[in-house]
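Feature request disguised as a bug report, sorry. It would help if multi-protein outputs had a clear separator. Right now it looks like this:
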Amino acid sequence: MAKINRREAREILVGLLFETEFRSDEDVNGIYALACEDREIPDNDYIRRGYFGIYDNLDEIDTMIGKHSNGWKTHRLTKLSRSVLRLCVYEMLYEKEIPYNVSINEAVELSKKFDDDKARPFINGILNSVKNELEAVAEE
């Protein structure tokens, strides 16, 4: 497979996260390996780092999402919305070279492409709230 750009890598990563939502009783290492083999996912550092980084830090990421989702528990969100949110919050917390606004814009674009139209403003609102908190903490 040819070299992929970051947007394509994000789409693949959201697909992996979404798939994992349906296989929660399985080990993420096995899910990742099988998905890479079956779907010929390229060996990409961003995809690998993101996938395992999200699951290594899932409690923190989901807590951050839940804190900013206006009373919605993370488990009540659709699997696709949750996958997009997890990716973006992961980027904001752990991929320091990616500006927050880029992560948010990419999440909104992923939502626009794959999720329900009603999800987009909800996702955007949560992510902007997360961004505002992170910026406030950074200023302290």
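(second protein starts here, but nothing in the output says so)
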Amino acid sequence: MPQVMRSTGSSLSEINMVPFIDVMLVLLVIFMITAPVLQSGIQVDLPKTQTVKEIKSARVVITIDRAQRVYVDDKPVNIHELGAEAKSKLTDPAHQPVYIRCDESVPFGSFATVTSELQQAGIQNISVVTVPITERARAR
């Protein structure tokens, strides 16, 4: 008896999900790797102190990296233009805080120069960003 092939007339009803899952896993790995970089911007080793206050509001952050380059909110700035640049980001320079992130290997003279430029621009509320001392670091 000859076999007759029957065609049901239906198309493939299942979607192959494997390529979609592969792409999603690759994207997940990329986001997991890039998220810490996006959070800090410029990499600096902050000094460690016992008292650390968490910053919760919008802020102007000035960063001094190991090479003593100065940044205002991740944008490189000439030291002579620092005061004007920081002041332009504030609505009330006499009372709004400016935070300085400084690598712990930067000489104090560079830190003092940045602080002086800010004070000459009329910025009075200057805070230093640090990280808390962990129990392991205290034992050393």
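Even a blank line would do. Unrelated, but nice: Helices lie at 18-40, 82-88, 108-120, 135-139.
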